[in-house]
């Protein structure tokens, strides 16, 4: 008898423990109205090319052209509505995991309880968001990887491997946000980019080149530059390939925003806008540059354009110069942004180089107003990627029948050109509108004057 009691008590105890474990490990209930949307996107839906679109969930993402997108990446908030909607559209959902906390811990081993609790949070987040793709932002770790400390690098390596184990099956992708060129460590002149890269290549499946990382340029002189100078883009990809990370693992981040730089001095002849140095190093101080979304460019009135758009041939990007009144007098600002031609060159480059894809950085940068021309512009921005980059079907601006003349489109190339021109016109009109300071006219009213703008947009 006593032994039976013992057994019952023992069994109850075991059951209690199992129940406790299950409760502790319980997954959050599905947040979607349709429970099926909590399922991962099946792997056999794997695409040849990726078009990531980043969002912080603040815009009307449901209005996007979802055919264009392969994965929607939630930047920060990990908004489950975005997940439900992505899955309902049969598109992957990705989350970005910031590593700022981790970069601050000296000891990344499991001996540090702060690290173990961070890892546990990570595991739960990766699980409960039902993310198909987990993207680590490695940028905060770059300074540590740059230092030539082998022990530290071994710790980072083990740490990343642990993260990867947490998100395995049924998903299989852990992507990493990295700088425009491979991290190089060692101050003794030795090139260590290969060993850092091969370390990262074990855990990171694909590498997203951060568009904001091009600002970290040491020793190239302090002046305002395009967000992605095309010269550096080519150099960076070449260096990744040399370090053993091939093109089909690279995803190019493409900004849909620009930056306005306050100039320390501005030369109107050379159009060079000099910036301050950080402390007294050779690093430029870009902390006070201001982000300008396409929304601002299209609808904002705060940008007073002094000169017409200036096209920089070395960077393959446009800029505007304007003056701002400050307490210490007027200062020059140089605004580098993306127009139809600079975007076209980047999309084309991703395609020509056979990169894995692009990441639109970010979808929220588009204008939100309900005005017709904004709506048409947005439609154009989305459909363009689909046709040009993913190369599905014929290249034709969609949803623009009334601006679209059959006799203008004699072939694929011309169709593409026309799609581009619509965007070019929008940008050109902003310039003209602001310079002439005349009454607002609907930009597409200029469509019949396409010939007039042809040279503006395409004469490099
Ligand atoms: C963790 O702590 C144990 C004992 O305190 C020690 O032997 C081990 O080397 C530590 N591991 C790391 C990676 O620091
Ligand atoms: C862990 O975090 C606490 C609070 O943020 C901090 O005081 C402590 O020093 C950290 N421990 C380690 C080992 O980093
Ligand atoms: C601008 O640059 C040109 C060419 O380098 C130089 O000749 C000119 O003096 C500069 N102007 C100013 C105002 O610094
Ligand atoms: C660099 O700046 C620091 C203070 O910010 C100053 O003490 C130092 O003298 C400067 N060095 C040079 C070479 O100008
Ligand atoms: C800047 O100030 C000057 C006079 O101080 C004024 O004429 C000009 O309109 C101002 N510009 C802007 C953009 O506010
Ligand atoms: C989301 O991004 C947009 C565009 O960059 C920005 O204006 C907005 O403040 C952001 N919202 C949040 C909640 O971060």
Automatic annotation (TrEMBL):
A GO CC annotation given for this chain: extracellular space
Domain GH18: 237-362
Alphabetized Pfam families for the sequence: Glyco_hydro_18
UniProt keyword annotation of Zinc present: no
Signal sequence residues: 1-24
InterPro entries registered for this protein in UniProt: Chitinase_insertion_sf, GH, GH18_Domain-Containing, Glyco_hydro18_cat
Keyword set includes Membrane: yes
Key words of the record: Membrane, Signal, Transmembrane, Transmembrane helix
Residues spanning the membrane: 404-430
Alphabetical GO biological process terms: oligosaccharide catabolic process
Protein name per its UniProtKB record: GH18 domain-containing protein
